Amino acid sequence: MATTKLIVVVGATGNQGSSVAKTFLALSDRWRVRCLTRDPEIFKTPGSLTKAFDGASAIFLNTDFWGTYRPAKAALEAEKRSVVPASKEAYDHETTNGKNAVDVAAGVPTLERFVYSALHAINKTSGGKYPHSLHSEAKAWIVEYIENQKPELAKKTSLIYPGCYNTNPMLTPRLDPGSGKYAFALPVRKDLQLPILDARESTGPFVRELIEDEAVGKKLLAYDTNLTVGDIPTEWSKASGKDSVYVPITVQTMHEKLGVPWELLDAPQFLNDYGYKGGIEGVVEPSQLKKKVQTKSFQTWLGERNWPELLAA
After folding, report:
1. 3-state DSSP assignment of residue 32
2. pLDDT digits (tens, 9 = 90+) for 185-224
3. Which tens digit of pLDDT belongs to each residue from 242-273?
4. Cβ neighbours around 90 below 10 Å, total
5. Nearest CA among 286, 287, 289, 266 for reference residue 278
């Protein structure tokens, strides 16, 4: 019987991590899977991570920002205070956990492949124009830490940059009672290319490709379908049978009238200026991989949803 290798999936209860775990569990002829949650105690105690990573041939790491940000934001809102400090608290939490995980992974003698789920360095790429998106900056900091402080681990590392989740609230329109049409009110330009990913289903197959078939060092923009923003209402209408329309909206309006925090609004401005590949040197797309990764298209996913039930909710 062939010897199986061990992959450790950090964040296995999340959208991306659960997909990676499911994919490798189905490869039991050659892989064993060890799943870790995002329990902060695991990250705080180097001994826990050392035990968790012991014997790993591959590690998938997705660090968490939102688990800290959301309760911190809610607490500040309850006190009628600015929510800005919630971003810094979540940034510090994520970078500390990421550094601890990277430090331990760098010392695993059996490790062959390390895949980290990354995001754009929005502030750096924009020259400080967009400084508020700390959920992106935390992951960009961890990438730089690997590259600059852990050169031996960097030689084993590939990066996956997830496209826009298909479950992103911006991709679900709202009924405009005046026109009777469903409106996609979006703060991005109509001709922007928006790569869309079903994170719960497609992350795993892309990570498997990076680990098993690709050379180390790939930076993959992972997506199922790459549409322009203007195409999205058309595809949604085909699937739902309802009329829909793209409606441009400014980030200022979203912030001032809808209460959306700047933590979430720098990213669309950045995308308008730089696109989804902005600032990622050497990034490749799915079509450039050695083998075609079979995933479900955004259009198919839309067509499989129960729109009468969803729209009635």
Report:
1. strand
2. 999 999 999 999 999 999 999 999 999 999 999 999 999 9
3. 999 999 999 999 999 999 999 999 999 999 99
4. 24
5. 266
Residue 201 token pair: 């289903």
Are the C-beta atoms of 17 and 10 separated by less than 8 Å? yes
pLDDT in tens, 107-121: 999 999 999 999 999
C-alpha dist (Å) from residue 75 to 69, 110, 263: 10, 43, 16
CA 217/CA 157 separation, integer angstroms: 6
Which run of H or E residues covers position 253? helix 251-256
Contact call for residues 139 and 118 (beta carbons, < 8 A): yes
DSSP class of 155: T
d(CA 287, CA 254): 35
pLDDT (tens digit per residue) in 214-231? 999 999 999 999 999 999
9, 12, 96, 225 from 28: Cα distances, Å: 15, 17, 33, 29
Crossing angle of the two packed helices 15-25 and 199-212, in degrees rounded to 10: 60
Q: Which residues pair with 162 in a beta bridge?
A: 222
